[in-house]
Amino acid sequence: MMHPTIRLTWYHESNGCKPVHFGYIKYKSAGNDFYAIFAANKRYMFTLFRDKQLWKVMSHTNLHSWNFDLDYFQEVPFILEAYQL
């Protein structure tokens, strides 16, 4: 069975302390913008959406099975807003 190719949009920045590198897919559902966020290795991390002025995490990987940097939960929404992605 062939899976459709999903094209990620990539963001990469080095702020001096540590690099921030992630891919995302933006899509609409129920009038909201959703962002599926992927690590640099293309592994799914979490999905975000904005409800009025508050960003919410809708789903995420099992944090016990994969230890990614939890700062991404705060950094990614800031980046999405700052650069209007």
Write up this protein.
With 85 residues, the chain is mostly beta strands. The protein has one helix at residues 72-82, and strands spanning 9-14, 19-29, 32-39, 44-51, 54-60. A hairpin with a 4-residue loop joins strand 1 (9-14) and strand 2. The protein starts with 8 loop residues before the first strand and ends with a helix.
Please state roughly what percent of the residues sit in beta strands, choosing from under 5%, 5-15%, 15-25%, 25-35%, 35-45% or over 45%: over 45%
- Uncertain segments are none
For the largest beta-sheet, the strand count, sense and barrel status come to: 5 strands, antiparallel
Q: If you average the pLDDT, what whole number results?
A: 83
What is the topology, as strand order, of the major beta sheet?
Answer: 1-2-3-4-5
Question: What structural keywords apply?
Answer:
mainly beta, single chain, about 80 residues, five-stranded antiparallel beta sheet
Can you describe this structure in just a few lines?
By secondary structure, this protein is mainly beta. It has one helix at residues 72-82; strands at residues 9-14, 19-29, 32-39, 44-51, 54-60. Strand 1 and strand 2 (19-29) form a beta hairpin.
How are the elements arranged and paired?
Elements: E1 9-14, E2 19-29, E3 32-39, E4 44-51, E5 54-60, H1 72-82
Antiparallel strand pairs: 1-2, 2-3, 3-4, 4-5
